[in-house]
Amino acid sequence: MLVIPIAKATKKLRERFGASLEPRDDRGSLLLEGTVPSWDAKIEAGWAAARFGYHGVVNDLMVPGVCDEALEQPPLRDGALEGAYFDVAIVGGGVIGAALARELARWELSVLVLEKEYDLAVHTSGRNDGMIHDGFAASPGTKKAAYNVRGNRLWEPLCRELGIEFKRPGSLVIFRGRTSAIAYPLMVARAKENAVDGWEYWSRARLRAEEPNVHPDQHGAFFLPSAGVLSPYKATIALAENAAANGVRFSFDTCLLSMGVEGGRVASLRTNRGEFRAGVVVNAAGNWADVVAGMAGDRFFSLHQRCGTELILDINTGATQRHIMSMPSLLQVRSKTKGGGLVLTPEGNVLAGPTARERPGREDYSTSAAELRELERHLKINTKLSLSQVISYFAGVRPCSYEEDFIIEKSRRVANLVHAAGIQSPGLASAPAIAADLAAMVVDIAAGFKAVRLRARWMPHRGTKPELRRLPLEERAQAIARDGSYGRIVCRCEEVSEGEVRDSLRTLLPVYSLDAVKRRTRAGMGRCHGAFCTPRVMEIIASETGMEPCAVSKKGPGSYLCAGKTKEHKAQAAEARS
Amino acid sequence: MTADLTMDVVVLGGGPAGLAAASGARAAGASTLVVEREERLGGILKQCVHDGFGLLRFKERLSGPEYALREAARAMAAGAQMLLEAFVTRAERGADGRFSLDCVSREGVRRVKAKALVLATGCRERTDRQAFIHGDRPAGIFTAGLAQYLVNVQGLLPGKRAVILGSGDIGLIMARRLVLEGVEVEGVYEIKGEPSGLTRNVHQCLENYGIALSLCSTVSEVRGRRRVEGVTIARTDARQRMVAGSEQAIACDTLILSVGLIPENELALSLGVPLDSATKGPRLDQNMHTLVDGVFACGNAVQVSDLADYVSESGEIAGRAAAAFALGPLRERVLVPLKAGPGLLYAVPQFVDAASPTPVVTYFRSNSSLLEGARVTIRGSACGAILSRAYLALRPPEMERLVVPERDYTGESSIFVELEREEREAIHG
Question: Which of A290, A333, B99, B363 is the most buried (most CB within 10 A)?
Fold first, then answer.
């Protein structure tokens, strides 16, 4: 891409965003400084700057009333990592970090994954609809398009190895009004250009026959059979567990605070759990990847956050449709996202969403009534759906570069640093392909300081424990005969047994929190939202760990579920009064 | 797999409805099994340590656990069998017309066969998400029933400073309970213009303890990343919409919700039992017989009741009728729709079986408070007024009960429950 000279870029940006804008060429990146009146203007300026052909856009524009967000450190302080050395340090335990860790476990390398949270997949990787996109929606020629199609092919065999569910319902882009005749050839051209695995035109009658509950005002659909679904947090956890079984070390509650760079290489990494050294560093830090790049003096891009909200419908709703469905409006053509629709979970819930809204807040998962109203339109695609079936909703934040594409490359300035940044949608779908390329980069760098050989004993299969509700009755009875706790149902909505909760706490990477158990077992994920099973799960965690039930947290440090025991508090309150 | 078990009647749920159903079924001579998913009988009453239960049924003022114990003792003395910590994963009707249930417990998987089923599965609480509360999602948000379990069963304190959203009965009772445990209760907020719980609970739980009740207000937002740090309260208009600019931030570490109950009918749906969109429970006749032959329902699975006594009454009826169905010859039902007129939320049962000798006990609720008095008339499409009663007041939280006189209803195409507003003078006059 042709680089527009800085003087011309400055002129163009000032014309649109005001004279206070101070663009600079910072070692090949376009650095924006100055003040703009609103967050939207800041984002627009970043997008505009991305068209000038620089290596990246660093957007330091200030917006009145919006402060820089500080990274919240975990409260833990110890020396667990002090003085240690690893061949590879991966910053971030999301799906990219976990998939890369598993790839690297094939090699004789010592690998550490740093995760600042109490568990894996707490942020973007666990806060999406789990769709493994077909690759049609990404702009042709982008990294997104290429990685998406490759990743889509890799997930199915990978899920078999990991022992998690993968389904391929296929995706229907439904035509509204009589635009189909114009849209169809354009869609075919794009599908071809992106090398998507298959597409079909469905007539109105065919669509009605395959999806009897579809919105009556439809004019056929563009069918993409390769679209799949999986559970994004289960996939991340499974990748990490399999990596751990192959020798990768994971350190939770561990936040990277700074990096020491010497002679163009990262020499040391300082964390709240001690300072250590690493041969290669991989930046897979999700919404903080630009901050992590900055720690190594390699801030050549900025991320902006695009928040999305999804509705979760009752598990019974999955029986009312067979495919992923969306009904885009023409207004959406120029938008940065695919516009959302109805996605199925492997377990049978329908998800409606997501929305897309630029807002500051790298970890702001608050939702609003306005967004929910916006999502109601998706429910109309399936006439059997209504708001009363919504059991919950959640928000996620997409980490986006201003180029709106993935950044997957070796650092140009730091010899032993690799970036995996801007992994927005379709990041989950692309993850196995991204991990394969990252692993090749890491091995290449590592080969500069040691002989890197394939590990002789690499175990691609993750040992899995039974999911009782899916077993045939006879096998279920056998499991209960072996261990009676498989017969005690603690989560009535999702039919999860005590034994399964215990199993989830006895893995290589156990996490003793309510939400961690929920992600692994689905206990608390159903229509009662944990109103019945919360005390039981607290008791099981307590009995597995020896901690008091009142010490069990919802989601790691600070998220305590109970303030103590009633009797003790009453005594204290009485004392305080007297 | 453990051996198959064959019963006349299987009752799903061992709360006040299911236990009374078991007593009723045994009294009518049927072999009866209660399947209960928890380790002890009594359902939600086990955690209701306050008193006021049983005034109608036992003519005594009992606590929840005492009431549960009475019902359990009655059912066991009557010879009902109990399967505890057992969970029905699947229910279906076989080709022989018998129901077949897969019951999972620590002992294994047992297939239970039954001639008749009584669904006494109770209800669940609406959650914060189902009430569409926004903002952050920290720890410290509890439904009132969960908070009640933590405090009364586990001896755990949900927090130190609580806001209660919703003035349903459990919310009111928990406000008092928390104050007694030394928790600061900042207040109870109700989106509607009147309390959702019983008037007696507003007096006994809030007023007597100096807890403020704010009507026409709701929680618009929760704040706090890890644990609740506060909530925003907004005033609401007559259509329950938030009034812009009325927001007020309140610091608290706990939000407790009492925003409604939803009958649990997942098993009913799997058996093809049609539900009533108003009650969210099965549509049924005065024998608590649903529209699927052999499937009966009772208690809070049918309609959310204000008194445990009514729950047990419906259970007893369902149990007796289920036994009669299991033991007797197949009897043709003559179902006459019982329809709730304007001004009523619903009327239960939804049908009168004109071929059945069982008296019709009907329950209904008004959809708004009629404090100036009202008259309810039950009228047949052919026979005209059957019964008429004047009320000093009707309130939606309070369920009303009427026994319809026995007579031949086979000629009716419908029976109506009609509500008229009435002037107070008219009642006295």
Answer: A290
